[in-house]
Amino acid sequence: MPKRVLLAKPRGYCAGVDRAVETVERALEQYGAPVYVRKEIVHNKYVVETLSDRGAIFVNETDEVPEGALVVFSAHGVSPAVHEEAAQRSLRTIDATCPLVTKVHKEAVRFAKEDYDILLIGHEGHEEVEGTAGEAPDHVQLVDTAEDAAKVEVRDPSKVIWLSQTTLSVDETMVRVRQLKERFPEMQDPPSDDICYATSNRQTAVKTMAPSCDLVLVVGSKNSSNSVRLVEVALQNGAKAAYLIDYAKEVDLAWLEGVETVGVTSGASVPDILVMELLKFLESHGFGEVEEITTANEKIAFALPRELRKDLVR
Predict the structure, then answer these.
(1) I need a labelling partner for 298 at 20 to 30 A (CA). Which of 99, 153, 171, 183 fits?
(2) Which residues are listed for dimethylallyl diphosphate binding in this entry (predicted)?
(3) What local confidence, expressed as pLDDT, does residue 1 receive?
């Protein structure tokens, strides 16, 4: 058989990432450098480096931003405490939180007001989890591992709901939900799916092509939850090997030995230029035939944050 590449579609940028990156680009155009960004705007090394070169300054905490300066909040969302701190420092803020993350924040607020115990399925330390939990810290408990699911306690088993980080593995999240429902049979599901359409779609595409792949290469950064999940999904669904890379130059040629079919995809925070570079690299090593595996067509787009829209020159 000839060497070939199976190219997943959809892959790469989702609507929330596209919106967040454009927010920083437009802010730089509109207000000039520097524009401060709290945390990485999205979890991708190339995007952060490119925006840094254009004048964005990435900081870990709001108190690193000079008083009165402009700061953009990342796509992963922030807690009310961060908004309060920004106000105390007289910072001009643009909130680039993904609307699908905002939806989960609103669910947390709503169910906390109704005095539910909220079991938040997600990864400890992830920025999105910190932002969501910060909306209702007295009501939210994080459930990351199977051990967490076995130990978590609630006040009233009839008033429990689970929510989730938007970038998790769909299958592994449902494993955790089943564990929790064994303990709390009356636990409610979210009003609508919390795992975002883009995360789910990219996992479905990988599931479809993985059984045919000797190797799957996922373009994405190590701190990108949805990119890391794609590697796991590939291995769980039949790929013989799978690796996460930021750039084509990171491919170890030993990975290609004896390989006839390479699957290629990218996380939701990855610009397609990086995938095109990988395809060129693979072509130079004999993988010239590319077949796109399409499992969904995404047409979702989000408007820019209102703070930016009102200031843009008409």
Answers:
(1) 171
(2) 43, 76, 126, 224-226, 269
(3) 66
Whole-number Å distance between alpha carbons of 246 and 274: 8
Q: Return the pLDDT at 314.
A: 47
Identify the residue whose tokens are 């006839």: 260
76 has binding-site annotation: yes
Annotated binding residue 213: no
Token pair recorded at residue 149: 């699911």
Q: Identify the sign of the CA torsion 87, 118, 43, 101.
A: negative
Helices (H) and strands (E) in the chain, counts: 11, 12
Q: What is the pTM of this model?
A: 0.95
| Extended beta strands in the chain, E state | 4-9, 35-38, 56-59, 70-73, 92-95, 117-121, 140-143, 160-164, 215-219, 242-245, 261-266, 289-294
Cα 213 → chain centroid = 25
Catalytic residue from among 40, 127, 128, 130: 128
- Is residue 206 within 8 Å of 253, Cβ to Cβ? no
Instruction: Give the list of residues 6+ apart from residue 123 with CB closer than 8 angstroms, or none.
Output: 129, 144, 165, 168, 225
- Residues 6+ away with beta carbon under 8 Å from 137: none
pLDDT at 310: 78
Q: What letter represents residue 97's amino acid?
A: T
Cis peptide preceding 10, ω within 30 of 0: yes
- Distance from C-alpha of 309 to C-alpha of 62, rounded to nearest angstrom: 23
123 is in an annotated binding site: no
> Burial letters for 219-249: b for 16+ Cβ neighbours within 10 Å, e otherwise?
bbbeebbbbbbbbbbbebbebeebebbbebe
User: pLDDT below 50 — which residues of the chain?
Assistant: 314
Q: Is the dihedral of CA 243, 197, 36, 60 positive or negative?
A: negative
Distance CA 58, CA 170 (A): 31
- Beta strand pairing status for 215-219 and 92-95? unpaired
14 annotated as a binding-site residue: yes
Position 14, amino acid: C
Residue 128 appears among annotated catalytic residues: yes
| The predicted structure's pLDDT at residue 2 | 82
